[in-house]
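Memo to structure team: turn this sequence into structure tokens by end of day. - J.P.
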Amino acid sequence: MRKVRIAILGAGSAGLTALAQVRKHTDEFVIVNHGPYGTTCARVGCMPSKALIQAADDYHRRHDFDTLGILGGEGLSVDIAAVLQRVRDYRDARVNGVLGATDQLGERSIAGRARLDGPQRIVVERADGGDDEVIEAEQVIIATGTRPVVPAPWCAFAERVITTDDVFECATLPRRIAVIGLGVIGVELGQALARFGLDVVGYEMRESLGSLSDPVVQEAARQSMGEEFPLHLGRAVELREGAGGIVVDDGREAHEFDQVLAAMGRRPNIDGLGLETLGVPLDPRGLPEFDRHTLRVGELPVFITGDVNGELQLLHEASDEGFIAAWNALHGPTRFRRRVPLAIAFTDPQIAVVGQSYAELAGREDLVVGEFDFSRQARALAMLKGSGMARIYAARGTGLLLGAEMLAPAAEHFAHLLALAIQREMSVAELLTLPFYHPTLEEGLRSALRALAKDIYGEAPLELATL
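Reply from structure team:
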């Protein structure tokens, strides 16, 4: 038996952020990790996907060359195997940097499967085959992460069904691919693979793409993505054996593919974790209630942090939550103000949701919406990126910014600007006093803000602050 002050279960983004804080204050800790080290983001998520998307976007740009007066683009070709190898090389460099956080911990880092036996007792089945180890901890931080959702019957198709965790390990990719699930990851990878010239078809049980809920922006996204690969929305699918591959049937049409990429989200890694031994109610997913400002489970010395808690499965949120959990495990309960929600899909145009979404605001009587169509924005047209729609939400009485949803070129930059303004509780009038350089894509954002201002204030406010 080992006694420690803090036990961290999981060495992903949340667990490693917690570890960094814990090490500043005590050596009486242990971190237990089951499965690969290296974090979801660095190993199978944010970083390798962006390397793949960059190659796809650069190759796709050849279609614009003739318009720009650049000749010879039709002669370009792509080597998918070389692209995937470069993605792995880039990924491995990121993973190696992450692994340094646990390399020198010795016996304070255990590779194995943890099982709770009450709030302060952990049984670890060691990966090296050694005897189970019992750990008693004053405080426990659960950060066990997630894994891709794959319906059990689909496992019978073996390597013909791959997940978003598997795709970057493929030596190459077949010609015909179905992407099932068009959330953020699915729509990113679906567009990227289509831009490499593969025959891609996307399927989504919902009527929506990515994280969007605004019907106007949704329609713009459906049109934009639908021009690049066929979309089948609003129906569940079934898989079956085909004569030369795997058949995807959505009840209307059936198509045969060489491989299926399952991108239907991720589920918390709580199987066998023993959450039922905590003595608190569990929701239908098997997760306990927790305070999102402290990450504490009830009144227990237990914190649930990062993707595993099922709330906001994003790297920056996981890092914040790892810090919050560690701080409270070390110093006692402190309620932290969470950052403004921010979600980005690195499609082209990019998808972004900032602050409160349209779905969250739709019932408000004081909701005011300002929009701008990027198909007529001067800088976007110069870049041959003239498409997309931005919708910004504010409160009529105060003019305070509330949120935004957008499909726009370089939306990642608009999203950060708006997140800053919302977190600083700025009004539309205040944001309009900030400089907007010409010609920039940000001028499209200013046009949406001006539309908001006209509706809120009845006339255009002064855009220069007085002394």
